[in-house]
Amino acid sequence: MTIAGRVIGDGVKLVRLLGRGSHSVVYFGVTREGQPCAVKIFPPHLTEFADREFRHALNLNHPRIAHVQQRTTFDTAPALIATYAKGVTLFERYALKPALIEERQAFLLTLSHLLDALHFLHSRGLVHRDIKPDNIMVEENGSAKLVDYDLSGPAYEVMSLPTRIGTAAFLSPEANRGEPLGPENDLYGVGVLLGWGIHGQLPEVGEALPATRDPLTPVWRSLTREDPRKRPNDAQQVKEELLELALGTYL
């Protein structure tokens, strides 16, 4: 079925496919007023899933977060309309690796914006639970926005059954065990990204990447500690430490 060209919600025209996820497809759309937007369409059987994302994301108004504006339907399928996040995914943007050697200033700006988004999210009592490159849209200069809240929810939410939430390469130890997740889980994901920026690769299962001369290595180490109680849980403090250590000849 051709979806492009059809109209959804209050006059939003679907233009082209942006991407496919495990729970939805996302289209680029244009509002009646000519403003770009993103339209996320779920299969009908995931209506409760879409409603949960809308409920948690509705009031997240922040320049580093893609704002979910409306809950609507497309035929019988639930759909969400959100602000359009410019750019490409983090891994697409930083094709030259390691990013902290090839494009240090831009990558530091990306991490700073990600930490700004998480600080805001955590201050609202929510955690993202799926920090990964596909959920971070990055512009040419490194400006970034956090997107996709279908796994988000209240900090330390207790599920009826232990549930592994997140993407394998970025799962914290506690997420892998199916435990309730707090801000330190999201910051573990930031730590994995920071390690990727330093080394230019993600570790294999059971592999420990070596320390380097990069002054950001201590931040990477602290964010990826096995014990969440020994990990930072304040995104603003992590940002401040990151930028302080980055000052000097490495910038």
What can you tell me about this protein's structure?
It is a single chain. The protein is an alpha+beta fold. The chain has two domains: 77 residues, Phosphorylase Kinase, domain 1 (2-Layer Sandwich); 159 residues, Transferase(Phosphotransferase), domain 1, CATH 1.10.510.10. 31% of the residues lie in helices and 20% in strands. The strands form three sheets. It has a six-stranded antiparallel β-sheet with strand order 1-2-3-4-6-5, with helices on one face. It has a three-stranded antiparallel β-sheet with strand order 7-9-10. Strand 3 and strand 4 form a beta hairpin. Helix 6 runs antiparallel to helix 7. It is globular, with a radius of gyration of 18 Å.
